[in-house]
Amino acid sequence: MPEQTHTRYGSNIGQPLTRREGLLKVTGSARFAADNHPEGMLYAALATSTIARGRVTFLDVAAAKAHPGVVDVIVPGNTPQLAFDPDDKDSPFTFRMDVLQNDRVRYANQAIAVVIGETLEAATEGAALLAPRYDVEPARMGLDGNETFVPPAVGVGEPPDIDNGGDVDAGLAGSAKRVDATYETPAQYHNAMEPHAIVAQWDGDKLTVDTPSQALTMGQGRIAQLFGIDPANILIRSPFLGGGFGSKALMKGPQILGIMAARRTGRPVKLVLRRDQMFGPVGHRAPTRQTVRMGTDDSGQIQAIHHHNHTATSSFDDFFEPAANLSHTLYAAPALKTTHTAVRLDTGTPLFMRAPGEASGSIALESAVDEMAEACGMDPLAFRLKNYAEVEPISGKPFSSKNLRECYEQGAAAFGWSKRAAAPRTMRDEAGLLVGWGMGTATFPALIFAADARATLKADGTGLVEIGAQDMGQGAWTALAQIAADGLGLDIDQVEFRMGSSDLPNGGIAGGSGHTATAGNAIHAAGGDVIAKLARLATDDQRSPLFGAGNAGVVARDGRLVRRDDESRGESYADILARAGLPALEGQGSAGADQDAQKRYAMHAHGAVFAEVKVDPELGQIRCTRLVGAFAAGRVINPRLVRSQYFGGMIWGVSFALHEEAVMDHRSGRPLNANLGEYHVPVNADIPSLEAILVDEKDSIINALGVKGVGEIGITGTAGAIANAVYHATGVRVRQAPIRLERLLGDLPLAAE
Amino acid sequence: MYAFNYHRPASLAEASAVLVANADAKFMAGGQTLLPAMKLRLANPSDLVDLVALRAELSGIRREGDRVVIGAMTRHGEIATSDVLLAAIPALAGMAAIVGDPAVRSRGTMGGSLANNDPAADYPAAALALGATIVTDRREIAADHYFLGLFETALEEGEIITAIAWPIPKRAGYEKFRNPASRYAMVGVFVAERADGAVRVTVTGAGASGVFRATDFETALTADFSSAALAGVAASPEGLNTDIHADAEYRAHLVGVMARRAVAAATA
């Protein structure tokens, strides 16, 4: 993109503004979906299966209906007629859902009935009174013992097996040093703080829903398809999300059941999932067993990498965690191959969760690289620099930008990496705790999706920018408003910014760390469009001081257009509009992938994460005491929010390495820890010290704004860095996440010496 | 939530009568275990007999000669900060200070915890180690005869704990390895050298049948009350719990570490 398009910017982008909705949130005034209570609203409660596979043979509907306050019970056979079979697929983003179309149970915590009551208590008790009976079939659980197959595609439409043309087996055979190691990661559940919730109300064939959504337009389309109504008749309001992590990108069965309940009763209905009900129908990250085979020559130069991922999907749909594909981008290897296999289990369908593929792939690859560096007798950072990829290893394409070297340098300096003792189990603190330092490389693809935006200049010279974008907590309300203001050459307080509602232009999806690129570039283009129209009005008008300057000859700044070659000559927006007799002027903009650039360039954000852990040698208890991450992700719109996103990602990395694990009961097929008391995520006490360094990176190829994603990259690199730090502290390599203390102690008590 | 009957008796006699008259009735002291269990429908009492009106009568901490008597309705937070107890049995006050979380400590009671006898509760370890006496509305029960297994005690139908009498030891210490989220003991070890010189080491959170004595550790400490004396003593994983938080082998390992640390605390 030509550099001159950036001259239009004022001073909003780059400012560390605090969240504009922060006051609402800390005072409890921000209205989340479940905060809505329309007049006459009923409450719906799900009854969910306690088995993972079989049929429901009996529900005591009479008992539920007899309970005071219960209004209605929805079971298979009395649901409103759907216009589209929820077990059909018509696109890669259409996933099968369970909405009471039959008596089959395909996973634990699947909805088997909906009880609707005048109060939540009545509905909940009604659901308990259903006392279901089942024909139980044995649950298929675990990565072993079930038929293994090669998935037709992994992630979203990627081939399961990819190589760069090199001969991996020959490369390994000819290597002087080799690592062949297998790493396991568990099933994980998103567990956003805000559960999936919906308040649905019908007015004839018009539907209004309040529900958290990472993709308003897609959600609108899915509801329209299922209920056979015009998408224009559906209004989804989602001003705030209490976290999404991918699980709110697609409409899920429980949300559809809430809409059904409103349709059947003719009254507004609220349905909020209980925490345990989120362990089933709303997606999760599948377990993986990954084998990394790697070999180097005598100098530590990688000769070959084979990354294989064995994972799982549900019995009834396809989503395969593309974990091995992380190896496509990071380390130069003349021979590189990634492969995938899978089994089908009686769980809900795994879906996108916090760097799907990248996160689980990263802990395996970064651990293997650490093992390889040690085998070569090299410092882990030196080893990574030696094998630095100047072009994308899988494709040979140049990077649109890549300042990973600077990330390594700045991160290492801030952390003090040069003082690291080479040998494991040689560092201790004053309290006698074992100290370990580890590192990992972070990477995440720079994605952009299709979106549209509308920008309006009003007669008073202020602006209005509208887009159906979504704030998941990442700060879109603020960062996108900064882009909107600069696109119009106005101060942020002079621009009304609207988002979070499906009656606005399609804001694309808030996923894949692509929302700022997606919505931001659409907003940027809309601003450019209206400013160009305004400039035409002025430069074509003999009465304007800008007459004859030409569109490219003016700059928009502080509510005025000025001549590029003489900034003393200009005119305010209000004056231009007044003379033209226009109450307002509207512009449109859109964003989407530049197919040509994507063919020619590899586009990724990068980073380096350094971790310190301390391990109690008597207990094996691990604490991550210090994390430093340095990331290069193109242009930074708001450094405060970007730093916060990196922090969030790094904390999820801690979670991946040390905390999160859904423990599945292989007999019943149920998660044993479907609650936040036993499904552990980090709390403040687990995160003593975080530092995120924003490394400068200019990318004029990637998109007009030059931004990459920052949401998910922090989880990559971090989990591996912690695993490597635990090894460095203890000399014990645990190849199973989370690294639990008893796995660490194993048959080698650390206190024995 | 289902419907149940709520009672707030004004006397011990009335409380006991209400409980006996209703087959599925439960006493509630602080409610910090029972109410969450009811919310999850792990308990479905037909009648809740709230003892809160007896709090004035049944709470308080006083020294009586060589023992400290604590009213059954005394809350953990009050026990943790009692000057009387901090002077006489600091290990017991310290235990109360790490029961649950601040919310639990401001409502939960010593009597409620001992009546419930959760296998991961703290007080059972102290009671068995110090030789506490459980005083009820009808008798006194020695700790050695009180704990009968998981959630099982010597209490009879309708019997109410009114106070717990704690003999003051020469020295004592408690260390627990807390579940990172619930703060329940994954393993808690209480060591005590009683006034008569007898040594007790008790373990909570680990045993498949609730609190138990670690007699090998007692023998070693009887000879030499120091953490060094425990260097070669290991607990057996036999009879210990395995769950999603830790397996029996790790719990056995923890018993050793917590015991050594508890002795160090007692001798500090």
From TrEMBL, chain A:
One Gene Ontology MF term: oxidoreductase activity
Protein's name according to its UniProt entry: Xanthine dehydrogenase family protein molybdopterin-binding subunit
Transmembrane region(s): none
Organism from which the protein derives: Lichenibacterium ramalinae
Pfam entry (one): Ald_Xan_dh_C
Annotated signal sequence range: none
Domain Aldehyde oxidase/xanthine dehydrogenase a/b hammerhead as annotated: residue spans: 27-138
Superkingdom classification of source: Bacteria
Automatic annotation (TrEMBL), chain B:
Domain of life, per lineage: Bacteria
Family annotation (InterPro entries): CO_DH_flav_C (IPR005107), CO_DH_flav_C_dom_sf (IPR036683), Diverse_Substr_Oxidored (IPR051312), FAD-bd_PCMH (IPR016166), FAD-bd_PCMH-like_sf (IPR036318), FAD-bd_PCMH_sub1 (IPR016167), FAD-bd_PCMH_sub2 (IPR016169), Mopterin_DH_FAD-bd (IPR002346)
Flavoprotein listed as a keyword: yes
Any Pfam family the entry gives: FAD_binding_5
The keyword Disulfide bond appears for this protein: no
Gene3D superfamilies membership: 3.30.465.10, CO dehydrogenase flavoprotein, C-terminal domain, Uridine Diphospho-n-acetylenolpyruvylglucosamine Reductase, domain 2
Any coiled-coil regions, as ranges: none
MF (Gene Ontology): FAD binding; oxidoreductase activity
SMART domains xref list: CO_deh_flav_C
Annotated signal peptide: none
Annotated ranges, domain FAD-binding PCMH-type: 1-171
Keyword field: FAD, Flavoprotein, Oxidoreductase
PANTHER family: XANTHINE DEHYDROGENASE SUBUNIT C-RELATED
UniProt-recorded name of the protein: Carbon monoxide dehydrogenase
